Amino acid sequence: MSKSINLALVGASGVVGSKIISIFEKKNIAINNFYPLGSSSVGNKIIFNGRKYQIEELATFDSSLADVAIFSAGSKVAKQYAESFVDKGTYVIDLSSEFRYKDEVPLVIPEINGNILSELNGPTLIANPNCSVSQLLVALEPIHRNFKVDILNIATYQAVSGTGKEAVEELTNQIKYDKYDVNVYPKQIAFNVIPQCDIFLENDFTKEEMKVAWETKKILDPSIEVQATCVRVPVINGHSEAVFFRTEKKASKLEILKLLESSVGIKVLDNPALLEYPTPLENANDTEDVYVGRVRCQSLKDENWISMWIVADNVYGKGAALNTVQILQNLIEYNKLC
């Protein structure tokens, strides 16, 4: 991975943008020219590889200068600018949901369908999946490949960092200063659990819950039936998931554990006798792996059901920054940025 690339990062000063920068530094990915971009943050300084950069204006940036652009600034910004970057010959990796459900846009988790990137014929737009979906499918894919999942039920317990800086500040202020003003969330988040992530749709599911269904079908298998409940919890960072799924083939707990332990990007913490299981506080602070525990296999009315508990860092890890950088690494490996 020796090729040096020209990289534009939109939303460079944001929560995810700063984590993307730290991963680039950690993995020593060769960057020739680095262009941090923004709108309200123009003029602010950031540090990358020991050098100070000033954030440039996105609206006036010459996108042809970049081999690849990472958009980490939300759907509105992506909708306005992402496709124009592609038109100028730049690969775009977008973290928002704006393009995920378009048939022509690859929705990529490198461990699962990264080979899609080898088939690209030129600069294109690539979508990064929803944070909850990425960690879910990394754990689910090897099981599906071997035992065939057909029904999936999931409850997510999502940290406030997934909503951004203002949400983290709201939770912190409510706890620390007894300020229970509600701005970011529809109800007080401190000392509370809110069974709503994103807006409600006509079918009474939230948009976040439907994202789990839509993206599981697009990335893993359109035949899987999915039902989700997405919950916001008073945790700063790290999404947790209680996952229940039916498989066509019967599997034992030992088989599942061996399969997960041999899979890339997964760490198993499953020893109930010693109270070993993953938690966001212990396992989701600038961590790359998806942590799995509480694995249970049951036969219910002659059906094969498996239950698991999944935890991952939703900002630094597979939920956002890491998966994005891995997509870029795949583009380099497939010589798409020559």
* Residue-averaged pLDDT: 96
Q: And the CATH topology of the largest domain?
A: Dihydrodipicolinate Reductase, domain 2
Number of helices: 9
Largest sheet: 6 strands, parallel
CATH level 4 superfamily of the largest domain: Dihydrodipicolinate Reductase, domain 2
Query: Which structural category do the helix and sheet elements fall into?
Result: alpha/beta
The low-confidence parts are: none
- Whole-number total of structural domains: 2
Query: Can you tell me the CATH architecture of the largest domain?
Result: 2-Layer Sandwich
State the strand order across the main sheet.
Answer: 5-2-1-6-7-8
Give the helices and strands, then pairings:
Layout lengths: L4 E6 L4 H13 L3 E8 L6 E4 L2 E4 L1 E2 L10 E4 L3 H13 L3 E4 L15 H4 L11 E3 L3 H17 L1 E10 L6 H12 L30 H13 L5 E8 L6 E9 L5 H9 L4 E3 L11 H4 L6 E11 L2 E10 L8 H13 L5
Describe this structure in words.
The chain has 338 residues and is an alpha/beta fold. It folds into 2 domains: 5-128 and 320-333, NAD(P)-binding Rossmann-like Domain (Rossmann fold, 3-Layer(aba) Sandwich); 132-159 and 193-312, 2-Layer Sandwich (Dihydrodipicolinate Reductase, domain 2), CATH 3.30.360. The chain contains 9 helices and 14 strands. The strands form 3 sheets. The chain has a 6-stranded parallel sheet, with helices on both faces. Strands 10-9-11-14-13-12 form a 6-stranded mixed sheet, covered by helices on one side. The protein has a two-stranded antiparallel ribbon with strand order 3-4. Strand 7 (91-94), helix 3 (110-113) and strand 8 form a beta-alpha-beta unit. The longest helix has 17 residues, at 131-147. It is globular and about 60 Å long. The termini are close together. The model has no long low-confidence stretch (mean pLDDT 96).
